[in-house]
Every structure is written in C-alpha cells, then in structure tokens.
Design a protein that fits this description.
The protein is mainly alpha-helical and 120 residues long. The chain has a domain of 83 residues. Helices cover 34% and strands 0% of the residues. Helix 2 crosses helix 3. The radius of gyration is 15 Å and the shape is elongated. The chain starts with 25 loop residues before the first helix and ends in a 32-residue tail after the last helix.
Length: 120
C-alpha cells in the first residue's frame, strides 16, 4: 500500500523555478543567502516553512516505522537536504547559507536515512 505525503509535494522557488542560476540577479541570490532561513527565493517558500513541513512528515514517518511499516519518499534533493539537516542539527540553528548541507543526491540518485525511534 502506498500513501502520499502531500505536504512534501513541492518546494516553491517562485519566479526562480526552472531558471538557471546565472539568469537570477546576483543581488537576489545575495539577499537569499544573507537571510537564508526566512528569505522567500523568487517569492516562493522560505526554508523555515519547508523545514517545518518536512519535520512534520518526518515525525509521521518515524511513527510509521515504529508501527512496523516501511517508508519510501520519492522527492527532490531539497527535501533530502532538509531530512539530513533535521536528523543532524536543530533546525532553529540554521542562520547562514554556509551551514546548509552541500551534498545532495543527484538527479536519479537515491539516499537512505536511518530514522531514530519516534518519541511519544
């Protein structure tokens, strides 16, 4: 049986979506990196909101694992980075872009995360 997590369906980069980095004004990218957790790149989602959605879904996944279910997410590298961050650090500590995980699975690649036990 497959279930979907609609809150993970996408991360919205607003008008940046699908554009090459070199086509986005450098001042906009600098503003994003200066306020990394709260800036809305291209007018889309900010990282803090995405981390909150992924954190909620991750908690649900942990509970499903505790109940004996297998969990598989098919998503993009941004969600993989969020999971990596949430499993390794406190989300409120993200302040600068250079703190964000640089490595992420490439197109068509996959990654497996061991989930800690769900807490009651």
């Amino acid at each position: 049986m497959f279930k979907t997590a609609p809150e993970l369906v996408e991360f919205d980069f607003g008008c940046w979506e699908g554009r090459a980095w070199e086509d986005i004004p450098r001042t906009d990218i600098d503003a994003w990196t200066a306020q990394f957790a709260n800036y809305r790149p291209g007018g889309g989602d900010n990282l803090a909101a995405m981390l909150a959605r992924v954190s909620n879904a991750l908690s649900a996944a942990q509970q499903e694992c505790a109940d004996g279910s297998d969990v598989l997410w098919i998503t993009h590298a941004g969600v993989a980075r969020c999971v990596q961050w949430l499993l390794q650090a406190a989300p409120e500590q993200i302040r600068r872009a250079d703190q964000w995980p640089r490595s992420a699975p490439g197109y068509g690649e996959w990654v497996c995360f061991a989930l800690p036990q769900a807490t009651a």
